[in-house]
Amino acid sequence: MLVGFVLLFVALDRLAKWLVVRNLAVNQAWAPVPAMARVFTITHVQNTGIAFGQFHGLGWIFMLVNVLVLFGVVFYYPRIPVGQWPLRLAGALILAGDLGNIIDRIRTIARAVDQVGTIWAALSMAYVTDMFDFKIWPVFNVADMCVVAGVLLAAWMMWRADRAEARQEKSRVQALPTDQVG
Questions:
Q1: Domain total of the chain
Q2: What domain range includes position 55?
Q3: Does the active-site annotation cover 179?
Q4: Active-site residue among 13, 130, 133, 179?
Q5: pTM recorded for the entire structure
Q6: Best mean pLDDT range from 4-18, 73-87, 150-164
Q7: What whole-number distance in Å separates Cα of residue 158 and Cα of residue 120?
Q8: 144 in active site
Q9: Is the residue at 75 inside a domain?
């Protein structure tokens, strides 16, 4: 499941980014539904920062975090019970999103090295291609959607497990004779 979902979502991310880079200049927008142009457009953005375009030029630091998350998911994923498919899907989504943005940054670092000559200078020029522009929210991409969906799904599963455990504990305490309740 992991490899299939990761390949699918990384392919979707790469395809979306390729289409945007091929068809729109940087900062150019296209309204797929012209009547909704004030609400949503596809806008070609090169994000050198981290989430939501913050900390321009420091995206390479976030890439290091992505690599750590990637290793964490790869390490933890085999330990998720087979029956926990929502948690497995969450891991696959997080991994796919991480890979999608890491691929972008590595690709753009390689191009920047050709321009500036050193990897250290090129690191601050590394970027991801973002495109979904809902006007009231920072522009994002498919990889970002994967990470957010994966984190939300994992959090929801942990919350459900915590609630189930609390209900079990409450039932156990209620079933004890009154002289054994603490």
A1: 1
A2: 2-26+42-163
A3: no
A4: 130
A5: 0.84
A6: 4-18
A7: 40
A8: yes
A9: yes
